[in-house]
Amino acid sequence: MIISQNFLLEKLYGGFMKIETRDAFPDFVGFVSNIDLRQKLDNKQIEEIDLSINKYSVIVFKDQNISDEDQVRFTKYFGNIEASGKTSNITKAKDRRLSTDLADVSNLDKNNKPLSQNDPRRIFNLGNRLWHTDSSFKSIPAKYSLLSARNISEQGGNTEFADMRSAYDNLDELTQNKIQDMVCEHSLIYSRQRLGFDMVKELSSEEIKNFTPVEQPLVRINKITGRKVIFLSSHIGKIRDWIRPDSMCFIDDLIEYATQIKFKYIHKWSQNDLVIWDNRQTMHRVRAFDDLKEKRDMRRTTVLGEERLM
Questions:
Q1: pLDDT at 150
Q2: 3-class DSSP state of 32
Q3: Measured between alpha carbons, how far is 181 from 178 in angstroms, rounded to an integer?
Q4: Sign of the CA dihedral 119, 120, 121, 127?
Q5: What are the phi and psi torsion angles at 6 (to 5°)?
Q6: The pTM is what?
Q7: Hey, what domains does the chain have and what are their CATH numbers?
């Protein structure tokens, strides 16, 4: 069922949350300041947050001094958790710092020390600095991601978000028609190859199978709002029926277009921020920081997607 933007506004009007937006971007990124996510929420409150995510694509909750258990409980309000494991990263089970309910997007080993420069896990994780969509490389892509800032870097380490709804809306008609039925291959192999990470050298043939490419349409529709989006990611390595060089040139041009400042929000982290974003409607990337010296402890939970796109 497609719900209009007016319906969303009616549902949110007079709700329990106070949501502020930026004047120039009233429908992209909402800031919430009057809620404690450690407290149990009722169904009406959960619905309001869910509708807010669909409307604003990114929701910022300030001053949330939560535990892993709090974060997991809150995440489960919106669906099942996508477990972090061998199809999402190369960290061995014995080296994990966190439970599989949480994706460890920090720069730390299990002893809470920064990973060394040549550690394959560090190099693999540098892929998060490329524009991407979480789990677009899975047959059923992720729905929401929730990232909690437990310890932040003194400089750098911002996270940037791009609004894929506005990016689609502002495409010229010729390009909209061109991409309407395009299908792309997504895999972590493709995004890591961009960094020069040699998957074949670092992983076994069995591990490589965990990253078999999947096909996704380049244009998606949010069934709640009815808005079309460009489903982009650095995980894309090929367009169906195109040769790879042509594919990469076209996708790189689209990413450059879709991440212009007019489509972008830059989040400068504060301690205990929790940010939720809708992977169906945004791309994001982390920016550089001194990851060999500073400890940036960021913990992500991910809500499983609800639909196979192909």
A1: 98
A2: strand
A3: 7
A4: positive
A5: -60, -40
A6: 0.93
A7: 5-302 (3.60.130.10)
